[in-house]
Design a protein that fits this description.
Number of strands: 7
Mean pLDDT: 93
Largest sheet: 4 strands, antiparallel
Radius of gyration: 17 Å
Low-confidence stretches: none
CATH class of one domain: Alpha Beta
CATH topology of one domain: Aldehyde Oxidoreductase, domain 3
Order of helices and strands: EEHEEEEHE
Strand order of the largest sheet: 3-6-1-7
């Protein structure tokens, strides 16, 4: 299962601003526990697939998980040792932009200590700091 949009309006996009707080998606909405970002950053589609597999292995058939982010930003890259100029590089991968305070993943139907263990495994795979939050 590859995380990628079916269709986009433009093949290549500009870099966006990651500064500021995430307004939408800053509260736990579906599950009982969530994983919230403490820093801004980007998550690639391969990292998201790795996290999905981690969820599947950890939860087996108990509980439910939600991924509240989706990689919809095309990232381009120029080949190594290519001179400057000659236009923008070719498409490389899909990425999701994460701002501070965004709840990215949620778990429901499992005890708190079990959810902490699952989120700790996922936190190792992320490129920025995160914390576990509970539903208010």
């Amino acid at each position: 299962m590859a995380f990628a949009p079916k269709k986009v309006k433009f093949r290549k996009s500009q870099k966006c601003s990651k500064k500021g707080l995430s307004v939408a998606g800053s509260q736990v909405a579906f599950g009982e526990f969530g994983l919230k970002s403490l820093e801004a950053g980007m998550i690639t589609n391969t990292q998201m697939e790795m996290i999905r597999v981690t969820f599947a292995r950890a939860l087996r058939r108990s509980g439910k998980s939600w991924m509240r982010i989706f990689p919809d930003k095309p990232i381009s890259k120029k080949p190594q040792e290519v001179r400057m100029g000659k236009g923008k590089g070719d498409f490389d991968h899909w990425s999701a932009v994460i701002r501070r305070g965004r709840v990215m993943f949620e778990i429901g139907g499992v005890p708190k200590d079990y959810a902490q263990g699952v989120f700790r495994k996922i936190a190792y795979k992320l490129p920025f700091k995160v914390k576990m939050v509970e539903r208010i």
